[in-house]
Protein 1
Amino acid sequence: MFDIIAVDISGRHKTGDEYLMVCAAVAASVTADHIEKIKQIAIRSFRSKSSPDIPDVVTMVEETVSELKFGGTIVTEAGDMYNKPQWVIDSMFSSDFKYQESLSERRCIELAHHVSLGARKLLLKELGIQ
Amino acid sequence: MKSAIIVKRNDPRTEDEENELQMNELRELAAAADYKIIGEMVQARHPDRKYHIGRGKVDELAQMVAELCPDKIIFHNPLSTMQVYNLSEICRCETIDKFQLILEIFATRATTHRSKLQVELARLQYELPRARAIISILKKEERPGFMGLGGYEDSYAQDIKNRMIRIRSELETILKDNESLRALRHSRGFSLLALAGYTNAGKSTLFNALVDEEVPARDMLFTTLLPTTRSLNVHGREVLLTDTVGFIEDLPHWMIDAFRSTLDEIFLADVVLLVVDSSESLEIIRKKLLVCHETMWDQLQDVAIVTVFNKMDLISEDELAQRMLSLGYLAPNPVIVSAKTGFGFNELKVQISDLLPKWERISLSFPMSEKGMSIVAWIFAEGIVHSIHYDEKVSIDFEARDKIINKAISLATELS
């Protein structure tokens, strides 16, 4: 079993005159093809006037992950990091980082995606933003 | 044998090793389509809108074509219709890209009605977004209407769409037949096993060795296009093993759609045997496993996977152990086998039987009579009998699926 933290960010597009983003981090234990246990989920919202660049994304991910009690390799989709080579992004993180590879890592990111998307929709509804 | 020049444009600052792997795959694909490679050309640059490679390189290519006279120029990178047209015009030679090459291979290998339909659908899906441009180029001399804005393009695109709808509906009928066949096989108590993996991983060789069959297995990409199913005995249980088409890197979604009915054999199986060529280098195995995970992950629902490290006879035990350790996070339930020598088949069967849908075990006893003996014969046919004692009563200890056990209990109660 491997400990991973799957991360996904929703809302990287302009809503009104700003970017309203929600980052979800899912701490889980996985095997190559199955999620064995989901240990904790952390969600954080971020606001920005300009579109996020790679250092911004890294900061958002690190801040969300810091709220988790459990450790593990941070896993994201390559697209979240603008498809930059892994070694470029790896050096920007303070903990282990990799792009999604196995079936279970992809499944965990799918989960993180639904969490961040759902949380963002709820947030927009509460704030009365269409 | 036809001849071809292969061309690849590398993105700047990409890894040489990866580029070489991709070039090698293109060579193998060309060989599978019966092309002799008489020239190669590589350029590192961002894509050119008009020619894909640089203008100077196109002139160099044209010169190469004039000297070597190949039948085709094959590009690794996907080309737009205008790029194909421009390159063909300057080089005076038919130009295709990797996907057209794959379609060509599929077209030559497709022998049954179903595979022909799949290949035709894939070809039309490839052609549809290009249809307007193709017709526009072909008919530029004879356009009808004021300023040449007439209707050839739309009618051709519409024709392609209509043909696609017709083929899809025909494939859907086949899909339904397959689904009902699968349901029938499940209801008859057969569990379904599918061989999956990167192309040329040795799936067909393993299939032949496991079920003693003679499906074509060659050291060539895409030897298998159509699934073949045969029964296999796994520790007393009859399971159905299906050999399927291999995966390949960057397989476009339209090709996956076209081969949906074949790939469903993998996605709807009880256990998937993910075959890996372990004689390749660690990095290549990792990349190929990645492609397999990427192709399967969205479709696979609650299916157990066994990773079969095939061709173990080609490398040392230490090397293999090292590779398996490094690939643990990508290889569920690993088993080492050699389809050529038969090594590891027992362990593979143990692994499969552990992952098959569970059967219940039960002990029953009923009077020895003609009817009782017919129940015994039926239990022998449907389940695995662990022990049986004949006395005044027949005591039988056996394993079977729920449906059989329930029926056996009610038959035994009826008799006693």
Protein 2
Amino acid sequence: MNNMLNKFLYLDDAGPNIRDATANGLSRTGILDVIAEEPMTWDSRESLILNNIQNIDGIILDWRLTEETDRAKSGAVKYSAEALAQHLRFLATDKAIKDLPIVLCSANDGFKEYYRKDSTGHDLFDEVFEKKDFSSNHDLVVMQLKCLAETYKKIQVNGKYSPKSVLSNPPNIDIDARIFDRINDLIKNMVPHELVGFLLNQIIKKPGILIDEDILAARLGIDRDDSQEGWRKMLDSIINPSIKYQGLLSEGWTRWWAEGFVQWWKENIDPVHPQFFSAKLRVKLIGEKTGIAGLKPAKKMKYCVDSEFWTACIATKKPIATSDGLRIVSFNEQPWQDEQYVSLYAFLEKIHSDSYKINPMEKERIYNLKKLIKNG
Amino acid sequence: MEALEKKLAELDKDKVKFSVDAGIIDRLGRELMAKQETAVSELVKNAYDADANEVTLQFINTDADGGTLIIEDDGHGMDLDAMRNGFMRLSSTDKLHNPVSPKFSRKRAGRKGIGRFATQRLGKKLTIITQIEHSETALKVIIDWEGYQIDRDINLVANPVEEIPKLKKQGTILIIDALRENWKTSEIQRVFRYVSDLLQPSYLSDRLKKSEVTFGSQEDNTFIVKCQKNVNGVVEVISDIDKSFFEKALAVFEGYVDNSGEGFCSVTSKSLGIDLMNNLISITAGKNRDKIELYKLIKDVHFKAYYFIYNRTDYYEDQGIGISSIELKRVNDFAQTSSGIRLYRNGFRVPPFGDVGNDWLDIDERSNMASHANKIPLNNRNLFGFVEITDENGAFFEETSSREGLIINEAFGELVDFLFKAFDACRTRVESSTGFVEKKKKREKRSKVKNDQKEQVKGLKEFLDSAEESHSNSTDSGEKGEGFGREEAKAALEKLVIVLDEQIDEIAMLRVLAGMGLAIGEFVHEIRQFSPALEGDLSVLHANAITEEMKQGVNRLSQNFEQFQSYAAYFDQTIRNNSKRELHPIEIRSVVRKFVDTIKRNASKSNIQVESEFVGYDLYTCPMHTSEWNSILFNFYSNARKAIIKADVQGKIKIVGSQDSGKIILEFSDNGIGIPEENKERVFNAFFTTSTPVGRGASNSEELLGSGLGLKIVSEIIESYDGEIFIFKPPIGFKTCFRIELPKATEEQIENEQYA
């Protein structure tokens, strides 16, 4: 909607060469204009941000502001990224300054995992990145930063929103009344970062009313890696226009309406709910009804019994049936969110085992499953 | 009647009315309550909202589907009107109109109109028996949810109400039959935990219970949930988690002001060896500690507080009442929301005293003062406490009109004064207890391992020399025979000196290596900071590379940099893990996999194939440091690589993890030059090396890499966990195989590692 460059202020205590090169990397595709600066003392930093706030569309903070440069080490920087973010959020909530996206990044590997476990600062930052994503996942990161900046602007320019205009849900999709209630509360006293935080953390990033590409593929029963060309066609021509999420933040986070998918299935493929079909049958029906060739059904992971896939294993991202999945613990769960699962295979093989904890209620089941494996 | 009305409405051709399909009930139940435990907790909340003091959950034969759940409370119950307009009316607005409960003014906990769907979610049939205090009879309704099927009008499904004799004074009994899902013990426990958030603590101190003071039994705003599992008549009580963790407290502080105004407090702690005998400390109302003055205004005040020190499991270790670090962590987590000293007046909680963040006794403020810097931690976070005051006439304490808090008057001042002094006295008591002092010393000793062997050897040498001197003196004087065994003693001592000397060298080398490790740690972290910058520039270069040659160069640069980064990341991770002192059971496939990923490129550059294989699951070792595994695997790898380069073959490394009778086994094989028989025992000795001696001009690091300490370090790590390391028969096609056997983690340790 807005072709002007989005300006991000990037604060990092690393030396100027490192800082600038990182910023240049982010700016290179001409979508963002990232300006790197050192943190400085609280007073100078605060007044610089407040005086220039009209000229910036977002802030990227390095996680540890006080470790690298001599100046930072000497104690001139006495605050954390969290403190700065908290201060700006407070002023924005008070409507004393405009609200803008604040994201956190770090060069530490596994930082996201680490950060996920510390819940204190969760509502301060819109998103958290590992710096390696700046290059290895450049396009997505830039798209999400741009989307955040523009969403904040849009919200503050337009002002008037309804839950419906926030989510842009198609008329045939029912939304849990509690989501509407919550969004209604949030837009009544519109604080952009609270609305964005709710949408990202409770609606977009947790499967439930919206699903991501992994889960969409699982519900279609399609093996994405095996049917690349067909999968593209599937996304572009069939699924996209009718059930893709088009609401706020959809430019940065691609999601589909879970219920929309079921309706699409019932209208276009078969009146019976897709979960009743095995992946093979789903793909066969899709091929027949849509004429898309080259779609391959997803295969069962090791130790899985059912191929009525409905979700994706949190560790391998491969399709599994909920009956085969082991429930994991999720924080801050809302009633409209789906349970998340890990496959027994990934659990036993310790694939990405740092990234989740198993729900203790699965103990007995795992115990029995292990016995089965041993006997079989 | 309603059916008739409905038929009439259908005949009324001029108007249209909404009608509701009975299937909506089924749909609502399933969609509003995704999880069965949420459903149960909603029902418990309903009992709370009905001013119940006690609610009992009975899970009968629920190990398989189709069991029965009975939820019984002693709340106010429902009459026919309440049932019709509340329970049976969809989306009743009662909770919107009456946000607090009538008797105890509880803030309504249940969500709007969800309870009935909860029962539908849980089982196929519901029986409600409910009675109110002022009625002669009880009401009984049976609802068969199967009746609510799609394509039936909701108004046509009727549920007969019966009047039956009362079963209890008041309250509601929900009998949910034909449960849709099974309930295992772990799930029941989870529900129990889920609802315990609601519980108001009902810790009436034993002393007050026995005393004359009454709290007005029915006025008592307590709420207790009891939970039973009943399998074919065998009843198992699902335990009260709160109690059990308080029992593990490091110390319990208790105190009171008696009827005459005299104040006392005491500390009990099995862990620190403080018992109640002779342990009563007097608290004076006045300023002079040596003169006992009575409190004038407060009487019959009682407090009890459970005291925890976090991150110090070793303080708790005596007399079999130890606490695991996991348990302690759980208490610590719980403390985030529930610690502090809460005030109860006539049995009612008086907010905000003792809420998290409310420091009404200045406990936190005091402990932050500099003079307390070296004392034991005593913050609100360390305490779970309850202060009870009785004041039936409201003479001493006036409540503020908002019912939140007490007006600060003189009596309140006395109360704060008493508690302030009592907690201070308890703190001093703990600090001065011999148990605590000993444990502190033990800690300090443990952390201060002195490397004073050099001194000892020096002393020993001096002793040897002087012994020899006196020995030769005595020989001179011609008294032979007395020297029996002296030669042997001397030989033994000399041998000892040699061994000690070797150990000193070894320790010196280890110190150098440790220092180097720290320096590397520092640098690796610095290097990591360059990554995003280099990648930023690389990506700019990549986008702007014009010629094919440039593109190739940039690609190569990227690839090499990627490898460089994976090294840096691995070491950074290792060093970060190292700074965590806690040990964890380690699944060897996860450490091996990460290791193989890191060295893959380096290995393929040396033309070495690395494969790994695992037999069986749950290959958890006893708790160890992840970084120890990195040392083990890196040492094996660098030895193997050297052996392969020397053998000049197409290199192969195979890592196999397995388990056998309580041991976790790792075998590391290579097809290098192998180890000659005579060296097989010596490879684990310090300074044994097959590396060619470094040349004169060699750098320090070269010298260190061939130091011959690698396998020694590995074997020390393994042995410190009661494990074994030895050279094993290599698989076909391999020359050398190192085998490690380590104790397997216990089931409990594995569970703690895997579940939240």
